[in-house]
Amino acid sequence: MGRVELTAAELPRYTDVVVVGAGLVGLASAFFAAEAGLGRVVVLERRDALAGLTSAHSAEGFRLEWDAPENVAMVRESIDIFAHFAEVVRLPGFDVGLRQQGYLFLASPTPGATRPARLRERVAWWRQHGLEDVEYLDAAEARRRFPFVRPEVEEAHFRAGDGFLAARAVARGFALGGRFDTFLDVEVVAIETRGGRVAAVALADGRRVETAAVVVAAGPFSARIAATARARLPLELRRRHGLVVFLPPGLVDPGWPMVVDADLGLYWRPWPGGLFVGWEQALAADQTPGEPLDPAPADWRYLVRVRRHGRRLTAFWEQVPFENVLWHTGQYVAPASADGRPIIGPHPDVPGLYVNTAYEGRGIMASPGGARLLVDLIQHPRAPETNPFRVFSVARPNAPDRMVL
C-alpha cells in the first residue's frame, strides 16, 4: 500500500520518478507509473492535504458529451476505471461515490444566450461517432421527465450514463492503493538539470531529491515550476467560481441529474444539503488570464449573476435562498491553444521532463485516462504529431472542442 507522509523525515535523496502535485491528475499519474514498473515513484505536494487545490472546488461530475473523439475516449476509459475502482487500487469495498444520475442540457430561445446550443446537431454528431445513448428531447418530453424545467425550454438532450463521484475519495484510493509514497507540506521550488536533462528537484527547505524523471502535475503552478528548467508551458489560468447553496429540505430531489443551461454554460447539480452551482462565463474578469493564486479570492458579483440568470430555465430558482452559501473559488488551467484538450506528454526541450496538466475543469473525469496515456508515452515514445495532447510551443492543429463550458 502507498504511504501518505505528513512530514518529510523519510523523504528519499534519490528516486526514479518525482510527481509534482497531489491532485487527482498527479496521484493518478503516480499510480499508473508505479503500476508500469517505472521504479520508485514519489509525489511531492506543497499543501497539507490530497486534492486540496483545483480538485477540491470541482462539481465532481463526469460526462461523455465532448466534441473531440480523443476527449470522449479519455473520459470513457476513466469512467471504466472509476466503475471498477476498488479492484484497480486493490482496496476491497472502497467506495468513490459513483452515481450515474445523468447530465441534462437545456436550451431556450429566450434572451440572454451567449453561445449556440445546437442540441439536435450535437446528438446527431455523437450518434454518427458511436455515442448512441444520448437522447434528444423536445420541450414536452423534457418537462414530463424533469419537473424543474421551465416552460421557456425549447429542447434538451440527456445521457443517463453520466454522473458524479467523490473527488477526495478517488484521491485517497489512488494514494492508499498505489505502490508509491506521497509527501505533504513539501514544496518543489525548482527542477534542476544537468547536461540539458532532468537531474533533481530542489525543495523550499533547501533539500533536493535526485531523479531522472519529473512529472509536472501542479495545476495552476505547473508553468512556474517547468520554467525553472527553462521549459515553457503555454498555459492560461482563469479564476473559476462555484457555490454550494444550502436549501430547505424537499426543494431539490437528490436523484436529479447535472443540469446545464446550454445557452449560457451555467450548471447546477444536487449536493449534500443543497445545490452546487457553477458558471465559468459569469464574469468578464474571470476570462482574463492571470497568475497562479492560492487561495483565489471570490467576487460577490458572481453570486448576483447566478441568482439572476439561473432562473432562466429552472422553475424553482426563485425559491432558492442565496443567503446561506459556501464559496468554491479556484482556477481553471487551460492550454493557450484554446483547443479544449489537456497537455500530456514529454516536454520537447528537456529530456526527463513530463507534463500532465491543463484539463480545463476535466481533471476529475479524465485523470485516470490521461495518466495512463502519459505512462504509455514515457514507456513508448512516439512522434509528437501523433499525440493530440502533446506539449507545444505555439499551437496545436486541433479544432476546438465546443463542449468546454
Determine the mean pLDDT: 95
Number of folding domains?
2
Give the radius of gyration: 21 Å
* Helix content percent band: 10-25%
Q: Major sheet: size, sense and barrel closure?
A: 8 strands, mixed
Structure annotation, total helices: 9
Beta-strand residue fraction? 15-25%
| Secondary-structure element pattern, one letter each | EEHEEHHEHEHEEHEEEEEHEEEEHEEEH
Shape verdict: globular
Distance between the termini: 37 Å
CATH superfamily of the largest domain: FAD/NAD(P)-binding domain
What is the compact description of this entry?
This protein is of the alpha/beta class.
Describe this structure in words.
The structure is a single chain. The longest helix is centred in the C-terminal third of the chain and has 17 residues, at 363-379. The chain is α/β, with parallel strands linked by helices. 23% of the residues lie in helices and 24% in strands. It folds into 2 domains: 3-58 and 167-234 and 338-386, 3-Layer(bba) Sandwich (FAD/NAD(P)-binding domain); 103-159 and 237-334, D-Amino Acid Oxidase, Chain A, domain 2. It has an 8-stranded mixed β-sheet, with helices on both faces.
